[in-house]
Amino acid sequence: MTGVAEKLGSARVLLADDDESTRVIMRRVLENAGFEVFAAADGVEALELFRRSSPDAVLLDVDMPGLDGFAVCERIRSIETKTETPVLIVTGFDDNESVDRAYHCGATDFISKPITWSVLAHRVRYVIRAGEAFNDMRGLLRALPDTIFVLDEQGLIKSDSKNLHAFGAADEAGVALRVFENFSNSGNRPALRRCIRKALDTREPQSLEHFVESAGVHFEIRFVARDRQSVLAIVRDATDRKQFENRIYDLAFFDPLTGLPNRSSFGSELDDIIGTRRSSEAHFAILFVDLDRFKRINDTMGHSVGDQLLQAVAERLSNCTRAEDGMSRVKANEDTAVRLARLGGDEFVILLRDVASAQDAASVATRVINALGEPLVCESHQFVVTPSIGIALYPQDGSTRDELLMNADTAMYKAKAAGRNNYKFYSETMKVRSLQRLDTEIELRRAMDRGDFELYFQPKVALSSWQIVGAEALLRWHHASRGWVPPTEFIAIAEESGLILPLGSWVIDNACERLQQWTEDGLGGLTLSVNVSSKQVYSDGLLVTVTNALRKHRVDPRRLELEITEGMLMRDIEQTIDTLGKLRAMGVRLSVDDFGTGYSSLSYLKKFPIDILKIDRSFVQDLHTDPDDAAICAAVLAMAQQLGLDVVAEGVELEEQLTFLRRHGCDLIQGYLFSKPLAAADFEDFVRVHAGAGDKAAGL
Ligand code: C2E
Ligand code: CA
Ligand code: CA
Fold first, then answer.
1. Which of 83, 147, 344, 438 could pair with 176 in a Cys bridge, judged by C-beta atoms 3.0 to 4.6 Å apart?
2. How many Cβ atoms from other residues are within 10 Å of residue 573's Cβ?
3. Ligand 1 atom at shortest distance from the alpha carbon of 491
4. Over the stretch 579-631, which tens digit does the pLDDT of each residue have?
């Protein structure tokens, strides 16, 4: 007993019994156990003593004169501050009704008579300890901002569980209840049930989050299994935590000055893309944008101006990257084609996903340079902030994020070294090609305006008579610094950029002008062929261009030939047949260029209104050494004769080739053996000299 006494210290027990002997024995037993005991002989005295002594436990006999045990218990419970003191009802009537009454009047437990004296002190000790634990718990719950109630398996609030609201402050409990109802009524009941089921099955706490949009409040609901059919639902307002998390997220992944993704989120996005793209064919480009001499602005104007400028630059950059792809400033985990980030200081970086070519990256770089070219106004000062841009391409310029960023950075320094306000590719060949392409496009336009183009003429000679019957017009570009630029270097670019349409029209007009000139110069019998690109054939303008040119220069349409490539006959067949048919109806002759390089058969060609075949240079080239090529040429010549088509062999350089072609009945040849393409005046001289030589030969 000493042990118990020591532990309880001066715990106080109030006991009330009208039977004196019971009172005496109880007091002795309890005092022996170390309690301080107050004894009352009736209910009124018991209440009186309760108020004075503030006991830790109360033992009440049920059957007392005046106020009985139940009544005393009820009054004790009604004393606001003492609602938790454990009250044991000592009852002689060991029946359900008394136990029920005890429960309803707020008793903690009951002891039935006859009292087992040996366990009385222990019993009292237990209720005191349980009371303390209960009080601790209640204190704890009060301190917590949570509201707790009981849910059944279906997620319905159990009727008696509303008592639990008492644990939370009344208004909070009300809010929590509304949140819960909002949650389970907005289509979340299945999720709710699943969560409850899981909590019941696993006995592990589960949680759900819910945002009440109308209130702007974020709630977390946790579920803890209570028994086999119900859970405690603990509802907590998590708005602050959420806001905090968002703030942490923003700080971790976004640059506070510009609101753009920062280096670390940009880096992890790169990692993601590289991780998922490694096996696929996709490409992307990184543009490292550094502002030129920004430090000087910062040093002379102060950091606040510097910051405002950086914000303005960020705005410009996001506008000009957004323009193409309809993107907005977005969080790092969303999937977009263009991502702009600030790496720090005056360094920005642009990620272009799925770039088809270095050319795409170059044109974004150009757009950035143009966008920043407009002065920025800041605190009534005007600033022009120019960028230097380094471009790295995946996968050729690096396979990891560090490598790519480093190489883009290196390229950026090259751009600075090259005079700033421009861009450089990390990889030299890419740089050269892409730069040239872009330059070429710009220069082509300029050349059009300035008239830097000229037509050269390569004679075609008839094998039967060895007379020049016509020529092919070949385009030449005289470039101020590069000299003569061969068409192989610019026709494709002109086609891609659409410049081929005006350029092609110019060629047709110029060719007709030349035909007219030849007539005036006594060379009216010559034909002239013009190369036509597929873009021209598919555009509506070709017919008009040809008609106008013929009319303007009063040229007989039969002297004009259009060379189209075999590949053109394979696409848009209806439209091509239609266009070609109309041209043919005008009298214009049509020839199939580079014949043999495509897949069309001669019988397929019958569909088209064709007059002439040009055997591709590649077959002619090896005619005398490669039996296959010889066989092809021979077959083409034989079949063309059957179809009534003329055949021109182009690229004839050697006597052996000539001999072969002559033997197989080729009509015309064109090639260095006879003549290279010549400037207009040289061509006319050549024709005259040749005719003279022919006349001489004929006269001999
Ligand atoms: P193409 O139509 O096959 O023109 C023949 C090309 O072969 C010309 O090159 C000509 O100079 C070259 N050639 C002629 N004889 C020989 C020879 O004996 N040996 C060798 N090795 N080459 C020979 P060019 O002038 O550089 O033109 C290249 C291509 O550019 C042309 O090929 C044609 O597809 C295109 N092209 C030229 N002018 C125009 C034009 O006005 N419009 C369009 N759309 N394309 C053009
Ligand atoms: Ca040609
Ligand atoms: Ca050709």
1. 147
2. 13
3. 45
4. 999 999 999 999 999 887 765 666 678 888 999 999 989 889 988 898 888 98
Q: How far apart are CA 405 and CA 656, in angstroms?
A: 58
Tokens of 699: 């006269």
Q: Ligand 2 center to residue 531 CA distance, Å?
A: 5
Which ligand has its closest atom nearest to the C-alpha of 568?
A: 1
pTM: 0.48
Distance CA 470, CA 462 (A): 9
d(CA 515, CA 517): 5
* DSSP assigned state of 651: -
Burial class (CB in 10 A: 0-12, 13-18, 19+), 312: middle
What pLDDT sits at residue 155?
Answer: 84
Report how far ligand 3's centroid is from the alpha carbon of 565 (Å).
8
593 Cα–ligand 2 center, Å: 6
> What whole-number distance in Å separates Cα of residue 371 and Cα of residue 361?
15
User: Strands of 423-425's sheet, edge to edge?
Assistant: 338-344, 347-353, 284-291, 387-394, 423-425
Which of 453, 461, 474 gets mutated to test ligand 1 (max ligand atoms within 8 A of its CB)?
474
**Structural contact between residues 290 and 313, judged by C-beta atoms closer than 8 angstroms:** no
- pLDDT, greater one: 446 or 98: 446
Nearest-CA residue for atom 11 of ligand 1: 677
HSE on the CB side for 94, CA within 13 Å?
5
Q: Which residues fall inside 5 Å of ion ligand 3, going by CB?
A: 593-594
- Ligand 1 neighbour 488 (Cβ under 6 A): yes
